[in-house]
Structures are given as structure tokens and as C-alpha cells.
Amino acid sequence: MSREPGWLKKAREVSGYADRVAEIEALAGAMAAKSDEELRGFTDELRRRRSGGASLDDLLPEAFAACREASTRALKLRHYDVQLVGGMALHEGKLAEMATGEGKTLVATLPLYLRSLDGKGCHVITVNDYLARRDAETLQPLFDFLGLTVGVVQSESTSEQRQAAYAADVTYVTNNELGFDYLRDHLAYETPELTVTQRPLHFAIVDEADSILVDEARTPLIISGEGDGDAPAKYEAATLAVNYLERGRDYEVDYKARRVTLTDGGYETVADLLGVADDPLGLYGAETKWAAYVFPALNAKELYFKERDYIVDKGELKIVDEFTGRVMEGRRWNGGLHQAVEAKEKVEVKPEQVTVASITYQSLFLLYPTLSGMTGTAKSEAKELGDTYGLDVLKVPTAKPLRREDGGDLVFKSKLDKFRYVLRDVKRRHASGQPVLCGTTSIEDATLVSQLLANEGVPHRVLNANPKLARKESEIVSQAGRRGAVTIATNMAGRGTDILLGGNAALTAKLKLREALAPAVDGRLGPLVAVEPGLYPVADLGDAVDGALEAAAAAAAGELRAAIFGDVANGTEVAAGAALDRIDEFVAVASAPASSLTAAGSPGLAACRAAYDAVRAAFGEVVDAERAEVRALGGLAVLGTERHESVRIDNQLRGRSGRQGDAGASCYAISLEDKMFNVFGADKMQQLAFAFDIAGDDGEPLQSDLLSKSLATIQEKVETYYREMRTNLVRYDKIVDVQRRVFYNRRQQVLTADRPTVEALMGQYVADTAADTVANATLGLGADGDFGSAYAAAGDVLRRMYPAAAAPIDAAAAGLTGSEDAEAAEAALVGAARAGLADQVAAVEKKGVGEDDLPAMLMRFYVMREFDAAWQQHLRDLEFLRENVGFQSYSQKDPFQEWTIQSNELFTKLSAKVYRNAAIAFLSLDVDGLVPRPDLAPPTPVPPGKASPPPTSTS
Q: Domains in the chain, please, with CATH?
């Protein structure tokens, strides 16, 4: 390379990657000279060298060069040099900060290919099903070319589909699915049920890393089982009671801490309404425990709002993700909050939940030996990411200079003035032809902006948490950069989508092909794939292109029907969704570059490829012309309507404009009545506005440097508040994480144990329990104590604990009459208990003739059942301890130190209880009552893969 570009100088200064980029570039000619077969075979060569002892760092230049060349052929996309830098950062376990449009999806292929040479599996973790599926389908041709297998986990994936996906070389999965699969695996009772833990975790790339690792890390993942069946009626009664209370008189609300506190008068009022005024313990009575229902009802009333925090869809309450604006299917709040909100909305109140298993994202991701991430905005959180996850942030330079113009805040005194301005600005830009993306922080605001625009006759599209729009999302995003397009998006920051100026010819061509295929496969699917009027760049494609689409549908219909309905029951709603997924996969393959289809040998794929090429060419002419127009108009304009809790999230919204050196503009229109300022300093804002006489006239923006600085200070306070909250969560969870790892490791050892191992474990449990029983019976006896009676008592206790060992225990106890030899007594009773265990194993084996080692299966089952019961109780104990340890500060004790001491004391008691109860359960088993194949379902069943999180999951 004769001349070093500016970006490379920056890269050299920051990280010294320039030499490695040069090495990769030097291999380009050799890789280009290889045939397709030779390039595919190069993967096998690299694997052989890796297994022979070559380090990944030594193989990196060749692996990256091979992946780059394969991408050029399979995807028609060649990695830029800056993308090579990003790939190296990911391989090294760093967090690569790359601007929107810089090709993070393609960057990930480089370290994924290199790391896959170990054969241990690589995970790409993203924020939603749409992105996981999109990226897997987009990159499948490249991975196929290189000889790698690809899996994708979706919320509706079955256990079998999850197992297959996690067994692949590269797996695309959401953070939620990964977390809940991990928890469910540690509730499994047989090894074939395992999904993500079927092999050790190896390497992960977290996409939109700051969103997952920072924003969503406040809330732990929880799997729950049903608790008190009478609770629904109590939540309904508590909701009626709190509706009589008034804010300010009966209770106070701290919006910053998100806490509601009853006044003395309010406490008396609600106690009277619930009929416990005469109870000395009032709301805290042991029988009624009304406090557990009243405070969630107060929180539901004052802190959680429809269309912002949740929606009601077909009579079911669904949580809205505050960071992405998406509905979190199957998720439920814990601590009684979900039931309280259900009662508030007068929908069915489902039974209360108790925690079965839980983990924080911090603990989950630290299970990976190598964790990396990529995002457009991370530098501001670099310290937290380093402290919590050990991730260094590398800011990767852009391939082209950023041309977007970022305007300052436009501050209005009221929300009314703000939204009037938003309406004027959007109308003006739309009239000029400039596309606009309007970002809101709630469904409520998105609906308001939509209504305002509709009243003015401005055509627009809305992207929010409506579950019915999930499949339409790609259509909406594909049009957001077209001339005159107006798109309203709830928390667009988490969408992970590129907005192309002038539109997206490739995506709309895929939609057109899908629209042709779906009804030909199944008549029910036509309405499901119909697009909005005006979505396509060209309305009339002409006879030739229409003919190509018809030919494609005719050629592919039979092949698709066989693939879809060969394993999915026809005529059901589930089958319709599965059919569309299969059609999408087919379209993704058909639209891939021709070189990836050479081995396919499918007439249907060939016809679809021809139709796709024809449609894309027709759309491309219009899109290219429109792109030039939009660039001349200033590119995509981003207008935020409210500041987020972090400048980083604000910048994510801005980053949707100005991709790859395109023109663009961004600004925020905010008001002093916005949520953040109300919670963290509204009074100061209002005082400043009036004190400096800057209230503005006729709804014009306020002007003041002091005001702008004050707004920035408030946002910094919000960031600090939530950062400290996350830090505190991590601090306390580190103790639990150590316990969880130890406990899960012990359970996993039992799950995978063979017959000799599990029998030896059970024998040890029986022996230890017998020895403890003898020790307890003789505790405190002096030299002249009645040892014979003590041994008889110990034998009686053991006989009741171990009915199957009654005969040998009775014989041993009878022989100890008059004995004072404690060691001999212990040895005799322990030996008797072991003999009883051997008899029980033999009896079970005889009963289970023809079964797969029934004794081992039963012993594993009883041990794991006790592990689960003990862990669930431990989690409840920890929850109670966590809620009450704060009061230790009143007695001049350090709450965290007390938490550490007391939680570890609780943990040390767990193992003995598990072992004792497992031994008792197996030796109490009525062998004669066994059926040939016992039902070994766990006591708290967790639905595998039907929905994740399952209906019993909470967060």
C-alpha cells in the first residue's frame, strides 16, 4: 500500500492494528486465485492446523483473508480495512464501537470464522428475534460457502430446534432466549433436554452491546412457578382499596426512586378498608399479609402506565421494553407487580409467581471465556463495561467521514408547544421531500404524533410495540429513507436497522418475491404478506417481470409445500407462522449471490433467483435516482421528541442518520414537562425559565446557555443514578453468582453421572446421614450415659428415615445393646444403611427389567429434585434477606457485609439438606408401586421452548 489513509493512522495510534491489516491485504491475491472448491477446502486446512497446535492469533491473517474473499463471492460484499480492525478487536475480547452503517453485521463474520475453527460453537447475541433471524439469513450464504453450520433460536423454537441451533458452529440468539435457555437447562432432569449447556460456552459477540450489557442489565432474568392460588382475589381487593386513596394525603410518591410510601392516615384508611384495622399487626398480619398486595397495587397505580410500560392485547397484559419499545412476549414482572397491574386494568389476574431460578445478565455473560461486543455508542460507558465485564472499548474509525449535522436541543416550556413544533417541522421537511425519522420514548407519544400528522394529512408510518407489526417492521424500515417518507418510531435506538437513503431495493425485492410465493404455497398466507399501498418503489413492473414472478411461484410452490407441510400440521395458526418463516428462508437463499447456489440444484431456487434479479433491477433504477434527490435535500432528518436516560441512547437515535458518509441532520425537541425533568428536577427548570425571563413567546424554543447546561446536568444525574443502581446490583449478585456456579456445577455433575458415580454419591449421602444421626443421638452424653438407649434411638430414627433399610438397621441396633463404643456403633449403623441401599437398588433393578438403568435414573431424579427444591427455597431466603438487610444500617452495621455473611451461612446449610432428603426419598420408595417407566417430571415444570420466556417467567 503506497499511501496510508487517515483512518489507518488513527488505528495505528489507538491499537497498532495496521501491520496485521497489511498482512491480511498481502494475502488477498492468493485467496482470489483459489477456486470456490479450494477456498471452501481451506477451512478444513485451517482446522487441521488449529488442532495440530497452531494458535488462533497465528491463523488470524489467513482466516480473515479467506473470509474476506468468501464474502466477496457469496455476498458480493468485501470487508473494508476498518472492518478488519473491528474484527480483530472482537477476536481479542474487546467491545468495538462502530458507527451506524459501518457494517457491524459483516464485521462479526471475521472472528466468528476464526473462532469456529475450535469446533466449540460461537454465539451472536442480539436484542430481538427479528435481528437474530435477519442476520442469520443474510450471512447464511457466506457461512455455507466456508463450510460452517448456522443456527438461529427464536422465541417460538421448540427444544429440539434449540438443541440443533446451539449445536451449530455459529448460533444467533437473543439475550432473553439465551438467559432463559441457560436457566431451563439447570432445571432439566435428563441430558437430552439440554440446549445451550449441551457443551461449554466458548465465544460470544454481543450486538447492540451497550443496550444489552448496560441498559437491560438492571433487571435479572427469573423463571417462576405458580404460588398462592388465592392471591388474585387479594390483588383485586387491594386495587379497589388503593383507588380510594389520594396522592399527597394518603401516600407520597418518589418518582426518582420509583417508590410509594403510605402516610399514617393512609395506612389506617387502607387497613380499615381491608378489615384488618383491629389486627395489632395491621397490613403485616401473618394470616392476611395485606402489605404484599397493597404496595404493588400502589406502585401499579402511580408508577406504571398503559401504552408506556405495558399494553393490553386480547385481554392479556404485556410488558413493553423501555429500551426498545418492543412487547416482551411471555415476560411477567415479579414481586406481585404484574398481578397488581392486571387488577388495575381489570383483566384476568393470573396466579402469583415464586422464583424457581434466576440470573443477572452480568453473571450470565461472564460465563463465556471470551466475551466481545459491538455497538455504535459505548465510549461513554467504557469504565462500567471494563469494571463489570472486563471489556475494553475500541473506537473503530469510520470508512468515510461523518457528514451528519447534529443540532442543539430545542427546549420548550410545555409539551403542547413541543409537539406543535414537531408537527410544523415534520410538515415542512415532508413538503420539501426530505425523509424524517421522528423518535419517541413511549407508545403514547408515538400515537399522539401520529394523530397530529394524520389531522394535517401528512402520510406516515408508525413503528412501535404493537405485536401485530412485528413481521411488518422490515417493510417500514426499508422505506424510512425514501423521498418524503415520515416514520415515527418508539425508541428506535434498539432496532439495529440501517436506513438507506432513497429506499432499499434489495429488501423490497425480497418482499415482492415473498408476496408472490406465499399464496402459491398456501392460500391462507396471502393476506399475511400483503404490503401497504405505495411501499414498492415501482407500482407497475411490466409484463416481463410479472411473468418472472409467476414462473417463480409455479416452480417453487411444490418444493416449498413439501418442506413446510412435511413436518408441520396444515390448517393451524402455528403452521401459518412456520410456513412464512420457511418461505423467508427460501427467499433469503434465492436472493443470495449466484455462486452460493451452484450446488443447490433446485429449479425453484433458480426461478426465484431470476425473478428477484428482475425485480431488484427495476426497483434499483428508481431507488438510485431517489437516493441522489434525498442526498441533495440533506439526507435523513432525525427528530427526537424527548431525552433518554443517557446521552448514549440519544446518540443512538441520531446515528440512524448519516450512515457511510451520507448527508443527514438530527436534533431534539424537548420540554420542561418531559418525564426525565419531572422526576429529576422539574421545579428547578421551571424556576430557571421564569427567573431569566426566557419563557418564549408563541411556543418558540427557550434560549439560554444556563438552561442548556442545567438540562445536561440533569441528564448526567440520571445516568449516575442508574449506573450506581447497576453497580449495586452487581456488587450483591457477585456473592449469589459464586453460590449459583457451585450449586449448578454440583447439579450438572449428578445429571451427567453414570451408574457407578451416582450410586457412590447416594451411598455417601446415606452414610453421612447415618453418621450424623448417631452423633446427634450421643451428643452431650457423659462417660456414664446410657449409650445403649442412644444407639437404639438412632436406629429408630434411621428406620423411619430409611424404610427400605429397616431390616438391616434393626439387626444392627439390636447388636448394640449395652455397647459404649461410639465408633463401632456408627460403623454398624452406617453399614446397615448402606446394605439397605444395596437391597433397594437391587429391588429397583429387578422391577425395571428392560428399562435403561432404572436405579441410576431414579437416584439422579431424587437428588436433582432435592437440589431444585433447596435452591428455590434459598432464592426465597436471599430475597427476604436482601429486602431486610438494609435495616442493618440502623444498628451501625454494614448492610453489604451482613449480606455477605448471612447469605454464605444460608448457603452452607444447603448441601446437607439436599443429601439427607435425597437419601430419604430413594430409601422410602415403594418399589412394588413402581410402574415400568416412572414419570420423572420435575416438581415445578418449565415449558421447554414453547415461548421464551415461558408463561411462568418473570423479570
A: 6-219+363-387 (3.40.50.300), 228-351 (3.90.1440.10), 403-501+635-715 (3.40.50.300), 505-627 (no CATH), 753-924 (1.10.3060.10)
